[in-house]
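REVIEWER CHECKLIST
Item 1: Sequence provided? yes
Item 2: Single chain? yes
Item 3: Sequence as submitted:
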Amino acid sequence: MSARITIAALVCLALAVVSGPATEFSMPTGAEISQFLQDAVEKEKRAPGIVAGIIGEKGTQVIACGTLKGGGSEKVDGDTIFEIGSITKVFTTLLLQDMVERGEVKLDDPIGKFLPASVKTPTRNGKEITLYHLATHTSGLPRLAFGTWYMIWHIDDPYAPFKVKDFYKFLSGYKLPRDVGAEFEYSNAGMALLGHLLSLKAGTNYETLVVQRICKPLGMDSTCITLSAEQKKRFAAGHDESGDPVKNWSPSDFPADGELRSSANDLLKFLAANMELMPSGLSSAMRATRLPREPTDDPSEKVGLGWMIKTNFNVVWHDGATQGYVSYIAFNPAERRGIVVLANSQNNIDDIGETLAGVRKLRKVAQVNHEIYSRYTGKYRLNDKKLFTVSRKGDRLFTQLTGQGKFEVFPESETEFFCKDFDAQLTFLTNGSGLATEVILHQSGKDRRMKKVK
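Item 4: Structure as written out by the authors:
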């Protein structure tokens, strides 16, 4: 659900299955979290800097490792500002629910109610897209309002050149592929449009609306789009997967799907309000945004207004990514504990977020002789149409299912490996010579055996 630029979400290695029941969660200790972040920064080189924030009924804790920029000396901390990408979306949907409760809009208002008469809005079988459909990703609008060639042409700064007139032209010409409300499809375009419509209704710009109605009431003075001179000094530099610095994208006409910037300390205040650990006039609206409302493409999850809900864990979450930054925020409203993780690199940190949120086991990379990886390389039969390929590149091991991208796996022991991109593990079964004959995929509470075919 993360990157604004990502065309497709990660696809699990196996067929979709319902996750098993949640097990009792024990938060990793401060020392374990510190080591977790240190390994990610110093050993795995995932980001120059990572900050994790934890909040519960006993208070807050911030653990940080690394620097504001690669090769720099200034350390990241709880006040360091990062781009938070698609976490912006839950601010947008909170604005929506707040405006509903103020009587300014209704969830079932059609989008055409707020647009100029000259804009033709997509309909299908007589049904119109509403604000609710935009907030729950059920509008039928695509992930992006522009196509692949546009993205290639504007790859260094894809959103700023796409103006209001371009979006209106897209809307007027778009043909919905299915009935409105029929199916979940994660849509940056839909959420960007929602923020635009709310801004039109309020008679102000999106950033002002967020700051005035959410940030100021909650004391969040480091959350915005346009940074002050003082905030720029605390702003972490973005980096690509290889650790090279990247240029920040320019502000666009449609910021509501992913342009906010924030700090761990500010997002801990946001979590405190969502968990009702602090008094807030937004409490009622916040409760409404996290109600499970529609099924998603993951059987173990539902979508609220913006928030994703892991129903078997009772964890409400969202992640984010822009060019140079990744983020993760989650909380358990019943247990009143929440976490946030921010990093200044495009490398995935969802495993850190999910581990701290209690939906993934803390796994540690074991020190093994990488030469054993050659014993496991080859192709394994998943079914009649798909092969599971294991390959080695130097001291790294990769897996790939037919038709999907490669994912790196990491050793827990000489025969057990785990994936950091999503929650899946592998166990290799070997013969007397130590060569793999089968691999077992452990995912979503299921075990799937695959025999080696070549």
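Item 5: Key structural point noted by reviewer: Residues 97 and 285 are 5 Å apart (CA to CA).
Item 6: Recommendation: ____
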